[in-house]
Amino acid sequence: MIRSQSQCFLGIIITIYFFFCLLPLPNTFASPTQSLCRSDQRDALLEIQKEFPIPSVTLGNPWNKSIDCCSWGGVTCDAILGEVISLKLYYLSTASTSLKSSSGLFKLKHLTHLDLSDCNLQGEIPSSIENLSHLAHLDLSSNHLVGEVPASIGNLNQLEYIDLRGNQLIGNIPTSFANLTKLSLLDLHKNQFTGGDIVLANLTSLAIIDLSSNHFKSFFSADLSGLHNLEQIFGGENSFVGPFPSSLLIISSLVHISLGGNQFEGPIDFGNTSSSSRSIWKLVNLERLSLSQNNFGGRVPRSISKLVNLEDLDLSHNNFEELFPRSISKLANLTSLDISYNKLEGQVPYLIWRPSKLQSVDLSHNSFNNLGKSVEVVNGAKLGGLNLGSNSLQGPIPQWICNFRFVFFLDLSDNRFTGSIPQCLKNSTDFNTLNLRNNSLSGFLPELCMDSTMLRSLDVSYNNLVGKLPKSLMNCQDMEFLNVRGNKIKDTFPFWLGSRESLMVLVLRSNAFYGPVYNSSAYLGFPRLSIIDISNNDFVGSLPQDYFANWTEMSTVWDINRLNYARNTSSRTIQYGGLQTIQRSNYVGDNFNLHADSIDLAYKGVDTDFNRIFRGFKVIDFSGNRFSGHIPESIGLLSELRLLNLSGNAFTGNIPPSLANITTLETLDLSRNNLSGEIPQSLGKLSFLSNINFSHNHLQGFVPRSTQFGSQNCSSFAGNPGLYGLDEICGESHHVPVPTSQQHDESSSEPEEPVLNWIAAAIAFGPGVFCGLVIGHIFTSYKHLWFIAR
């Protein structure tokens, strides 16, 4: 009995001991009075704060000693040991700084996660980064880091994630990377790495590798022909070069390979047998392969068909030639195929027409000449986007093109199609973009949008279409872009399009449109219109002074975050088989990564192709018609207008002074009209105005003296004999005597009458007579020479 009581008592004592001594109290780490952060860790963070100009307001909890450093913004500590294990300072630095080898950062030796992306870092990556021996996640992307990647990173054998994209790093991938056997992601794209062996075969855990866009010219979409020193600035033709890196073929864990935007070259050798040590057969998990924008050539290897799990294949912008292998139709999981900008020929690949998961196909800019006979299988295909533009396809557009049930985007432009546009297209309710530009199509434009379709963009320019513009287009609630340029459409001005609040681009140029563009009972204005080109038609009549009063978009600064109207695309994302929406672009196009609208305009006197249309680009071209009357004063309300062309009409009256309110104006062409009066001096203050043409009018008075006017060609003012002050523009041969100040003084609203004050005359009479005699003597002495000089 006593023994049992003793045992019971002993059990109670042991229980109490474990409860109070061994188990952590509930508020051990939650108490605001007890610090979790170790002092050495706090001191290291305070050193970092001095090195990085980090605005504390963006961190959440501020970095100061009165708060536990483990609760500072961007800081995470080990819950037991109090060591800093994660530091996320992305997007926080407002001033440039560099990583020094003595940085307090490298004193945080227990870090497993480091994210300094977009922190405006400059200089080189210090080799002392190897001090972070526990690091598993390293993100230094979107900075300004230069130099070579230190080989010491290869000593961080716990690394699983390396993101160095968007810097200016050079050299080869360090061979020490072969030690990173746990690495699953390596992203080096948008740098300036050069060639050399890519030794990554040991990375048996690697799933994603992105080496794209290391050719410095791939950073730019603009023409670089005039930038002769660009190679010196960027260190020459930096990029990965040589053949396809075959060492990647033995990494069976790879899911994503992206090598685009470099200078890899030659044929692709994936190995032809499963016994090959470097064979594509080993890439059984590969889902995405992007080799675009390189110099690969030869035939597309048939062995690609062995990538049975491939979903996305991009071989665009290379030199592949001959026939596209039919065996690739075996890729049953393929959802996206881009082989544009190559030299492929023959029949369009069969896999487009067969029932599959394929959603987006771009075969543009090749030499395909045959669509094939695929009427039996089109009914089962679920393509969302098909681009066959810029090939050699000919004959009529087949009727079975209408059998695609879910086509969102169809581009057949720049081919040799003939005949009429299939009338069955009017029954297609899923079209967002239809581009039939530059073919030889004839007949009438179908009554599209009969059932309020989603049609956003319609381009039938440069064909031989006749008839009228279908009023069914009024039902296209999402219509942003309409281009019928270069046809034979004969119709009146489509006032009814003014009710389409989404319409941004309207091009009716070079057709047979006729009649007035104003009707008091039908005209609503175009509140969303950014570009209108109705040139080279037969429009007539005058424009009321408030004609442009409701064109509000042309007076609004473009902001990508500003949406004037809502479009619900979420339901369509599911309907089109999972096409991923993208953030609204600065350019006119769809909300899917399929298409950006293009246009050609008379810009600065030259026909210019705009492959993309900036949403902030505002244009009015009414040239080559028979408009008359005064130019509306309301034109001055369009403060964001970039191009105004009213040439080749019969406008009369003065040039509106309100044009000076259009401070963004770059091109102004009022030539070949019947304008009179003076050129407003205030136009000389338009600092962006670089192309001016006032020729062949009845203008008079002084040409504004400014850099913009002084840099114009003399021909811009020809045919206006009453203009003065052209000697600096046209040279002495066009010298015109300068009129008196009363003739060109704009400071007074009415010309002052010359009134002679008799008192002043009396005072000046004596000296005047004396000066007159002296000057007369000089004049008579040199009269002969003066006339010769004239």
UniProtKB/TrEMBL annotation:
InterPro entries: Leu-rich_rpt, Leu-rich_rpt_typical-subtyp, LRR_dom_sf, LRR_N_plant-typ, LRR_R13L4/SHOC2-like. Keywords: Cell membrane, Glycoprotein, Leucine-rich repeat, Membrane, Receptor, Repeat, Signal, Transmembrane, Transmembrane helix. GO terms for cellular component: plasma membrane. It is a single-pass type I membrane protein. Residues 39-78 form the Leucine-rich repeat-containing N-terminal plant-type domain. Gene3D superfamilies: Ribonuclease Inhibitor. Pfam families: LRR_1 (PF00560), LRR_14 (PF23598), LRR_8 (PF13855), LRRNT_2 (PF08263). Residues 103-232 form the Disease resistance R13L4/SHOC-2-like LRR domain. Its main location: membrane. The chain crosses the membrane at residues 755-780. Involved in perception of extracellular signals. PANTHER family: RECEPTOR-LIKE PROTEIN 12 ISOFORM X1 (PTHR27004), RECEPTOR-LIKE PROTEIN 36-RELATED (PTHR27004:SF438). Belongs to the RLP family. This is Receptor like protein. It comes from Arabidopsis lyrata subsp. lyrata (Lyre-leaved rock-cress).
